[in-house]
UniProtKB/TrEMBL annotation:
Source organism of this protein record: Mycobacterium bourgelatii
Record Pfam families: SIR2_2
SUPFAM superfamilies: DHS-like NAD/FAD-binding domain
Protein name: SIR2 family protein
Length: 512
């Protein structure tokens, strides 16, 4: 069965095998999709809409030039103005089925991945019936998903759409034959930790593999090939990097690093992790993938990248522990780099130690080959030994392993290892299970979050509210109407109530 992933972000930045964008039956598309379209398309001077090279075919599809290894195709989500949410959902899934028929799975994916938006809710005529579109899309995917030859990533640009979708998903959307009960329970536990602010993230190179980026060994192989160097087979990765760096001018070395690691897309794993209510993140990756995902979910000014930027305690932060490809000179790869880094950046390692001590740190895509991180973890194990004796069956941190061979044994007692697959050979399917696991974790965190109903007072979702939510909405709006302007102006208590109402989607201009 094709799985439906749900994330908050920018669909145009998603690394996938195909991306679907909506158009009308004449081939007109909104300019918001310009970055995925061929240049110099005819433009309507009044609306700014762009005209595609061809009209939709019998399947409602307009095939466009591929971009960044992605098949880009437009689909007719409506005729002139959409009036039926069920019809829009049907057109969308029909387009997914048509596109995925002969679609290859690239970048190590086990199943092709097709990225889609919430069609019909922008300029398609259903902006004020978006809850109905969500309901019909989920309903139809539950019925038709088993026949799809691909996974689907629904990427929601608006946060309230994202929250509304998560509120309408069900536990059975992760069937036992896809994600076994033990992993569902663990995902739910980690989701609850995220919801209550207890979860932090540590990301390794495995998260960036579905983007087509190399892991550490792959990076060394790329650099060796690019520089025509034969590396000895019996040296450590750090030593191999030292050999490569010593043979190249600094500018050439830095440029080859950028060629290998710089990109403008992120994976579905990055999108799911960026969608979590998590404020503290660490990565040993040099690439910009997580920043791109955070920009889509939070906005470019709503998080900080350390140490490129000064921290802001009111905003989430991402620590790039081993450097940033945006500044190739900061990349920590060689033996000498690690020695210098450990001496000059003790404060950064102290920050990681603090996360290990004060939060539940989830390691994703990290292989525990970084000796400096292992030393930090082992130090924390010693510090926590007395506390652990009082709770011997609890774990302070969790690591996700793809296969039995993915994580080597380490002397870190506070680490629970979750194994995605019992097979040591099917790494691609294990990587897919990891992403499905993260999707479940994200659903649990968002659907039970303090702002899980932030669409309740937004008029655009009114038509799809349950009877209970409708009754609650009416009562809250009655409170607004019956509260005098004097109370609203002078009561400190009203300011708190107003903040809660705004968190639920209330806006004075539309709801009073």
């Amino acid at each position: 069965m094709g799985h439906l992933f749900v994330a908050h972000g920018d669909l145009t930045k998603l690394a996938c095998d195909a991306v679907l964008i909506p158009c009308d039956d004449k081939g007109w598309v909104t300019p918001s999709w310009r970055s995925l379209l061929p240049p110099e398309l005819p433009r309507d001077n009044r609306t700014g809409w762009l005209l595609l090279p061809n009209k939709p075919d019998a399947d409602g599809i307009v095939r466009l030039p591929p971009l960044d290894k992605r098949s880009v195709q437009a689909f007719a989500s409506m005729e002139w103005v959409a009036t039926d949410p069920a019809d829009v959902a049907e057109r969308l899934l029909r387009a997914v089925s048509s596109v995925s028929g002969d679609l290859p799975a690239l970048d190590g994916r086990a199943v092709p991945l097709v990225g889609i938006p919430l069609a019909g809710t922008g300029h398609g005529g259903l902006a004020h019936r978006r809850g109905e579109v969500i309901d019909k899309l989920l309903e139809k995917h539950r019925v038709q998903g088993s026949s799809l030859k691909c996974d689907v990533a629904l990427i929601l640009y608006e946060r309230r759409d994202f929250v509304a979708v998560q509120a309408r998903r069900r536990p059975e959307d992760w069937p036992w034959n896809v994600l076994r009960e033990e992993l569902r329970d663990k995902a739910d536990h980690l989701g609850r930790l995220a919801r209550t602010g207890q979860l932090s993230l540590f990301l390794g190179s495995g998260v960036s593999r579905p983007v087509g980026l190399p892991d550490w060994n792959g990076l060394l192989e790329y650099l060796a090939k690019a520089t025509n160097i034969d590396l000895p087979s019996n040296v450590t990765p750090e030593t191999a990097a030292s050999i490569i760096k010593s043979t190249l001018p600094a500018a050439t070395y830095h440029q080859e690093l950028k060629n290998a690691l710089d990109c403008h897309r992120h994976g579905i794993g990055h999108a799911l992790l960026a969608s979590l209510p998590v404020t503290q993140m660490v990565t040993t990756n040099f690439d910009p993938c997580m920043e791109l995902a955070l920009e889509g979910a939070l906005g470019p000014d709503e998080f900080r990248v350390l140490i490129r930027q000064v921290a802001d305690s009111s905003k989430p932060w991402l620590l790039k522990l081993n450097g940033d490809i945006g500044d190739p000179a900061s990349v920590v790869l060689t033996t000498e780099d690690f020695q210098l880094h450990e001496e000059e950046n003790r404060a950064l390692h102290g920050l990681v130690q603090g996360l290990l001590l004060t939060s539940h740190l989830l390691f994703v895509g990290f292989s525990f080959t970084d000796e400096s991180v292992l030393r930090l973890a082992e130090f924390v194990t010693r510090v926590l030994r007395a506390a652990r004796s009082a709770s011997p069956n609890s774990y302070s941190n969790t690591a996700i392993a793809l296969t039995p061979d993915d994580l080597r044994k380490i002397s870190y007692d506070d680490l629970e290892i979750l194994q995605m697959s019992d097979s040591a050979t099917d790494v691609r399917e294990a990587a897919r299970l990891l992403e499905i696991f993260l999707d479940r974790l994200c659903w649990k965190a968002i659907s039970e979050n303090d702002r899980a109903a932030e669409y309740l007072l937004d008029d655009r979702y009114l038509s799809s509210l349950s009877a209970e939510d409708q009754q609650l909405r009416d009562g809250l709006l009655r409170l607004v109407d019956e509260t005098s302007s004097n109370v609203k102006s002078n009561s400190t208590g009203w300011k708190r109530i107003e903040a809660v109402l705004r968190d639920l989607g209330w806006r004075p201009s539309t709801s009073q």
